[in-house]
Specification:
alpha/beta; Rossmann fold; Hypothetical protein af1432; five-stranded parallel sheet; three-stranded antiparallel sheet; 18 helices; 10 strands
Length: 396
C-alpha cells in the first residue's frame, strides 16, 4: 500500500522521540526529523506538503513557541502539536497563544495518545486545506471580477495581466513552485498601483520624461497604496506585501528605500519586478532578444538566477532567426539600414530624438551624432540588423 502524500515533521533533539515517531508512524507516513529550529524551518520552506508539525517546547534555536509562529507564516494549513515536559501554565499559554498550537501533549506520551493526536491533527489539517481551497476560489473569482471592472476604466494598465500570468506560471514550473495561487493573484493585481496614478503622470513616466518632485512622490507611493487596499482582505495579506516590494531592485534600489535586498526579497516580488519590466521593454508581439538585452543593461536590479531562467524559458517561443537580429551599438557603430528597437532619448532630459521602428540613414546617424555632441544621447542603442550586415561588420 502506498504511503499518503502528507508529510510529518518532528522537531525534537531527543533521539528517542525521533525513533519513536519512526517506529509508530514510519510505515504510514513520511517522517522528517530535525534537532533544531533552523533545519526544520529550512525544510518547511522547501516542502509545502507538510500536514502536521510536532515540536518540543525547548527546541534548540528559537524555541518551540517561536518556531511554531514562524512555521505558521510558512504553512498556515499545517496542524501544530507541542510536546513538552514543561507543566507550567506559562509554557502552555505561550504554546497556544504565540505558536497557535492545535494540541499540547506532555512527555512522555503513550503510543495511544500520540496516535490519537496524529489522527486529530491530520483531520484538522485536511479541513483547513478544504476551507482554504474554497476561500481561494472565492477570492480568485472576486479578484477576476474586480480586474474586469478595472479594465473598463484603465485598460492600458491591466491589459498585460493575461500575458504576464502565463509567463509567471512558466517560470514557476521551471523553479519547481507547487503552490502558485499567491503568484497568480499578485500578477493579476500588480497593475493596481498604476491604475491609481493620475494618467498624465503615468504617461510621462512611461515615456521616460522628467517628473516633478511632487509627481515622483505620487509615483513612489503607489505600491504603499496597493498594500493598504489589499492587506485587510483575507488570503491577500501576503499578496499585498509581495506587491509592496515588487518595485524593489535585487541590488537594493527602488521602492521602498529601506526595504530588503537580494534573496531577502520574496520570490513572488522578484518575479513581478522582472516580468513587469520585461513587459514594458517588449514589443506588442511579446518579449524578444532586444527586451532581454534591455533588462541586462540594468541586470543588477534583477535576481541573476531568475533573469537567466526567464531568458531560457520565454525565449523558447521566439523564432531562431529573430534572436540573432539584435545589436547593441554606440553611435559610431550604427550603420545605414539599422532599425531602431527603442526610442532614442537624450541623456539627461529624456527628450525623444528618434522613435522606435525608425530605419537609419547616413543623415539620421549624423543627426544622432550632433544631438550627442550638444545634449548627449543615451547609449548603447539597440537596433535590428540583417545577418548579412553583421557578417560584413565582423569581417571589415
Amino acid at each position: 500500500m502506498d504511503k499518503p502524500t502528507d508529510l510529518i515533521v518532528v522537531a525534537d533533539p531527543d533521539p528517542n522521540v525521533q525513533s519513536g515517531f519512526q517506529r509508530l508512524f514510519g510505515e504510514r507516513f513520511d517522517i522528517a526529523c530535525f534537532s533544531d529550529s533552523d533545519e526544520a524551518l529550512a525544510y518547511l520552506r522547501q516542502n509545502h506538503g507538510v500536514a502536521v508539525i510536532f515540536s518540543c517546547y525547548n527546541l534548540p534555536g528559537c524555541g518551540g513557541a517561536a518556531f511554531f509562529r514562524v512555521a505558521e507564516t510558512i504553512l498556515p494549513q499545517a496542524a501544530r502539536v507541542m510536546l513538552t515536559r514543561e507543566k507550567s501554565i506559562e509554557a502552555v499559554k505561550r504554546a497556544l497563544n504565540e505558536g497557535h498550537a492545535f494540541l499540547f501533549l506532555e512527555k512522555p506520551c503513550q503510543p495511544n495518545d500520540l496516535t490519537a493526536a496524529m489522527e486529530a491533527a491530520l483531520n484538522h489539517h485536511r479541513q483547513q486545506a478544504k476551507d482554504r481551497a474554497l476561500l481561494e476560489r472565492t477570492v480568485a473569482g472576486s479578484v477576476k471580477l474586480l480586474i474586469d471592472m478595472m479594465v473598463l476604466f484603465h485598460p492600458e494598465a491591466f491589459r498585460r495581466t493575461g500575458t504576464v500570468r502565463k509567463q509567471a506560471l512558466k517560470l514557476a514550473r521551471r523553479l519547481g513552485m507547487k503552490k502558485t495561487w499567491e503568484l497568480e493573484m499578485a500578477v493579476m493585481l500588480s497593475p493596481l498601483g498604476e491604475a491609481l496614478l493620475p494618467k498624465q503622470i503615468l504617461a510621462r513616466y512611461r515615456a521616460a520624461r522628467s517628473l516633478t518632485e511632487q509627481e515622483r512622490d505620487i509615483l513612489n507611493r503607489s505600491p504603499a497604496q496597493t498594500r493598504e487596499l489589499l492587506k485587510n482582505i483575507p488570503q491577500l495579506e501576503r499578496v499585498s506585501e509581495y506587491l509592496y516590494l515588487s518595485a524593489r531592485g535585487f541590488d537594493g534600489s527602488g521602492f521602498p528605500k529601506d526595504g530588503p535586498r537580494g534573496k531577502d526579497i520574496p520570490m513572488v516580488a522578484r518575479i513581478i519586478k522582472l516580468l513587469t519590466d520585461l513587459w514594458h521593454a517588449s514589443p506588442e508581439g511579446g518579449p524578444d532578444a532586444a527586451a532581454f538585452e534591455a533588462l541586462t543593461i540594468n541586470k543588477r536590479k534583477y535576481d541573476p538566477m531568475l533573469l537567466e531562467i526567464a531568458r531560457e524559458a520565454l525565449m523558447d517561443d521566439i523564432p531562431e532567426g529573430k534572436k540573432k537580429l539584435i545589436a547593441q551599438c554606440h553611435i559610431r557603430s550604427l550603420q545605414p539600414g539599422d532599425v531602431l528597437v527603442d526610442d532614442v532619448l537624450t541623456e539627461n532630459s529624456h527628450e525623444l530624438v528618434l522613435s522606435r521602428g525608425h530605419p537609419l540613414t547616413p543623415t539620421t546617424i549624423r543627426r544622432l551624432e550632433h544631438f550627442h555632441q550638444t545634449s548627449g544621447v543615451r547609449q548603447p542603442i539597440r537596433v535590428e540588423r540583417h545577418p548579412s550586415e553583421e557578417v560584413m561588420t565582423s569581417t571589415a
